[in-house]
Design goal:
The protein is α+β, with helices and mostly antiparallel strands. The chain contains 5 helices and 5 strands. The chain is 40% helix and 21% strand.
């Protein structure tokens, strides 16, 4: 009786542990960084400042580390940053598409940890968020936490609804 009960408990615990893992498996996001960013802008429920965009090449290590805080991963497919036309507004977001989802969590964590919150002279970003879906990462630097969360959620919705 005791052995049966122990076996059932061990089985239940083992199954619950395997059930807790969230795997992002699926086909890579097929949209470019720019396409995702444009959909985020049009799908945002928040008013955004007038934005300008800058494509970031993996070869341009200075710009890449300026915006994303890290050296460009070797597997960068496309990257873009949208920032206010008025440079003193503490807000920007960037989208990074990698060739595959390998190392995506570590890359997103590295970005969130190393991005310069004080890169503006007159203000700092109080909220820095990253999110990832399969091979895509978003970075949002903002003073409005609700807006940053909303943009990250819109990004996840767009990417989850788009597979090759």
């Amino acid at each position: 009786m005791k052995k049966t009960l122990i076996f059932i408990l061990i089985t239940a615990i083992t199954l619950s542990l395997f059930g807790c893992g969230k795997k992002q498996s699926g086909k890579p996001v097929s949209l470019s960084a720019e396409e995702i960013a444009e959909k985020i802008i049009s799908g945002s429920s928040f008013e955004l400042p007038t934005l300008s965009s800058e494509q970031i090449s993996a070869d341009d290590k200075t710009s890449f580390s300026y915006y994303f805080g890290i050296e460009p991963p070797q597997s960068v497919k496309s990257a873009i940053v949208y920032s206010p036309v008025i440079a003193t507004i503490p807000f920007y977001f960037g989208i990074l598409i990698l060739d595959s989802e390998n190392g995506i969590s570590a890359t997103a964590s590295g970005i969130e940890e190393k991005v310069d919150r004080n890169r503006l002279v007159c203000a700092s970003y109080t909220t820095v968020l990253t999110g990832s879906v399969r091979n895509a990462i978003i970075l949002v630097c903002d003073t409005n936490e609700e807006r940053a969360i909303s943009l990250t959620n819109v990004f996840k919705e767009i990417c989850n609804n788009n597979q090759q």
